[in-house]
Design a protein that fits this description.
Elements lengths: L1 H8 L5 E6 L8 E2 L5 E2 L1 H13 L3 E6 L2 H6 L8 E5 L9 E2 L4 E9 L17 E5 L3 H9 L4 E5 L2 H10 L4 E5 H9 L5 E2 L5 E9 L4 H16 L2 H8 L7 E2 L4
Parallel strand pairs: 1-4, 1-5, 8-9, 8-10
Antiparallel strand pairs: 2-3, 5-12, 6-12, 7-10, 7-11, 7-12, 7-13
């Protein structure tokens, strides 16, 4: 199986790993040579080591661009959030880590609970191509989503237009709330972004190898060790076994 997986996942002889550079929990810095550093690059390196091939990291500005490239010959595995829209063109493993998504609301907000936010008279600022943005687009029934093209832009729109809520990953909102006096983060979550490894739909042996690799990485301490190594304990959590 390993030979077939290697042939599928590294057809050029090198494993090309697509890395989402906008996830500040999974990419926490840069190496002297410019390569991204963090949980996601290290996990890709562990996959390459298991396959016995060199690794080439392929950075993408955001997860949407990485997902859009699924039909191109740019990457062999992609480390992004697994959502149903992306699963149309990418085979995902189960999640290796999870990140809670919730809302930040202004000081005078009437909302105390997550469930109260989806109302007809509510406007929510959200980064359009994020995994949680895609989830909200598919699941919000009443509130209006005000889309933006990045994390910083979603915060700026929330403040400038005095919107009712800002959707985001809890760790990012913890930073954002400091910049917005009186604002608060609602307890609970509307979803949890499932960080996974994906590959092309026709690489079935490769996909099976990746699924087994991720489950092993959750049980043998690899994921928890990377979370600790890159100082994101309490912000990124190991996903449950499947």
């Amino acid at each position: 199986m390993i030979d077939q997986a290697r042939a599928e996942l590294a057809p050029t002889g090198t494993l090309r790993a697509g890395i989402n550079m906008s996830n500040f929990l999974l990419v926490t810095g840069s190496a002297p040579d410019g390569d991204p550093v963090g949980v996601s690059p290290d996990l890709a390196r562990a996959v390459a080591d298991r396959l016995g091939v060199p690794l080439a990291l392929v950075p993408f500005n955001n997860p949407g661009d990485l997902a859009d490239a699924a039909g191109e010959d740019l990457w062999d595995i992609g480390n992004i959030g697994a959502v149903s829209e992306r699963a149309k063109t990418i085979i995902f493993t189960a999640a290796y880590a999870e990140i809670e998504a919730t809302y930040m609301v202004p000081q005078d907000s009437r909302f105390q609970h997550i469930e109260q936010v989806d109302r007809d008279d509510v406007q929510i600022s959200v980064y359009e191509r994020s995994a949680y943005g895609l989830w909200l687009r598919d699941n919000i029934r009443h509130a209006r989503l005000v889309m933006s093209d990045g994390l910083d832009a979603s915060f700026d729109i929330f403040v400038e237009k005095k919107l009712d809520a800002l959707a985001g990953l809890r760790p990012r909102l913890i930073d954002d709330v400091v910049r917005s006096p009186g604002a608060r983060i609602l307890e609970g979550k509307f979803t949890a972004v499932q960080q996974a490894i994906g590959t092309k739909p026709d690489r079935l042996a490769g996909a099976a190898f990746l699924r087994d690799f991720v489950e092993e990485a959750k049980t043998n301490g690899l994921i928890s060790g990377l979370i600790e190594k890159h100082d994101v304990v309490g912000r990124l959590t190991v996903a449950p076994l499947v």
